[in-house]
Specification:
Layout: E1 8-12, H1 18-25, E2 30-35, H2 38-50, E3 58-62, H3 65-70, E4 77-82, H4 91-101, E5 104-115, E6 126-134, E7 137-144
Parallel strand pairs: 1-2, 1-4, 2-3, 4-5
Antiparallel strand pairs: 5-7, 6-7
Amino acid sequence: MIDFNALSVCDIFAGSGGLGFECLSRGADFCTFVDKSGKALHYVKDFATHLNIDSDSYECIKSDAFKFLSQENNIQYDIIFVDPPYNLRIGDGVINGIIESGLLSRNGVIIAESSFTDGITLPAHFDILHHKIFGTTQVHFIAEKE
């Protein structure tokens, strides 16, 4: 079980923001929602208002995932969600982009969702902590080796 208190979260391919909102509701301090759709981020902002989430607890960034990962950031995240559209088959590239960007904190975890047919190739110093298949979806919990 994850203790979300004081964690910093990033929800890449945020869509409706469900994953990030769930973390905030469980005590995470901050969530960055990233999506290239302005409409999706408008929905995230409206839902945050509806849930009475303090505007200091989240930010919305309208960006392509790869562009977001290539920008210089002053924040590291304890949990980073990656849930790209399955048909794009870019999860591997995004995961490796996260690792290369330094956005993941030292003990952070990447939680990546993809089609059950997609494989993942990680740098040697990272490992899959847990892997689960739900129908046609798979979820990987990825972290740096100790």
